[in-house]
Write a structure and sequence with these properties.
Strand order of the largest sheet: 8-7-9-14-15
Structural class: alpha+beta
CATH architecture: Alpha-Beta Complex
Strand content: 25-35%
Largest sheet: 5 strands, antiparallel
Distance between the termini: 32 Å
Oligomer: single chain
Bound molecules: 2-amino-4-trifluoromethylsulfanyl-butyric acid, cobalt (II) ion
Radius of gyration: 17 Å
């Protein structure tokens, strides 16, 4: 069952998601060669608690940290450690909180210093494919229109879409129905309705889409060890169309005013 949210509930979700967005933009400034991934995790948890929120991932199915930090061929669910980021790496930061009962969830992939041309393009296409999906978030469409738009954009650039992980509904739970795959044919699945809140999260690889989970039981890597990138926002379908909830600062005001970042 897809849980539709009222305008009041969406306002609650703006708050939790803006906390996530704020923390991700602060983490972005900390990403440089030499920083330990555990330092990023500790910072994220500390800031969430300062803002009255609880890290959403810690303890979720036994996940041992607050932040997921996935480097290079790691796709998602990388566990923070003493490992240091180094020049040329790409790093995905995935963070979620619970604030007043509602979840926020978002992810970005960042270059560490100078990275290869391929790495830069991969990061850019992950982000751009999210926006292609976002454009499909409107009442006349069906769920898989989002999926198909993402897949088309990714494959157009010669990259592949990860199949083993998908986006999801979100609200009072981190994962709600529906699942939001990043691949598929358009025109299938439930109709999109006002009040739907979705975490849309393309995960893409420079090589093949097959994944493997490392011995830690969490870290998902590309089987061919090609580079991977991840980009995620929590989005609501409101009166005014699609709205990204997980944005911070002046952008957040703009999006609330126009109802959509894509049209801003
Ligand atoms: N953004 C991820 C998701 O939607 C984060 C979950 S990590 C976990 O599934 F550790 F909490 F599982
Ligand atoms: Co998510």
């Amino acid at each position: 069952m897809i849980i539709l949210k009222s305008e009041t509930e969406i306002e609650m979700m703006r708050r939790s998601n803006r906390i996530v967005a704020r923390i991700l933009s602060e983490l972005k400034k900390m990403v440089r060669p030499g920083v330990k991934t555990r330092e990023l995790d500790a910072y994220a948890e500390m800031r969430a608690r300062e803002m009255g929120a609880v890290p959403a991932f810690k303890g979720y199915h036994g996940y041992p940290a607050s932040l997921c930090v996935s480097i290079n061929e790691e796709i998602v669910h990388g566990i923070p450690s003493e490992r240091e980021l180094k020049e040329g790496d790409i790093v995905s930061l995935d963070f979620g909180v619970i604030y007043k009962g509602f979840y926020g969830d978002a992810a970005i992939t960042l270059p560490v210093g100078e990275v290869s041309e391929e790495a830069r393009k991969l990061i850019e296409v992950a982000e751009r494919s999210f926006y292609c999906g976002l454009e499909q978030v409107k009442e006349e469409n069906r769920l898989s229109d989002i999926s198909a738009a993402i897949q088309t954009e990714v494959e157009k650039h010669g990259f592949s879409v990860i199949r083993a992980f998908v986006g999801h509904g979100i609200g009072r739970n981190l994962h709600e129905e529906p699942q939001v795959p990043n691949f598929g044919l358009p025109g299938h699945g439930p109709k999109l309705k006002k009040g739907m809140t979705l975490a849309i999260e393309p995960m893409i690889a420079a090589g093949h889409w097959e994944v493997e989970v490392l011995a830690d039981g969490w870290t998902a890597v590309t089987r061919d060890r090609s580079l991977a990138a991840h980009y995620e926002h929590t989005v609501a379908l409101t009166e005014n169309g699609a709205e990204i909830l997980s944005i911070d600062g002046p952008e957040a005001e703009e999006s609330a005013a126009s109802g959509s970042l894509a049209n801003a």
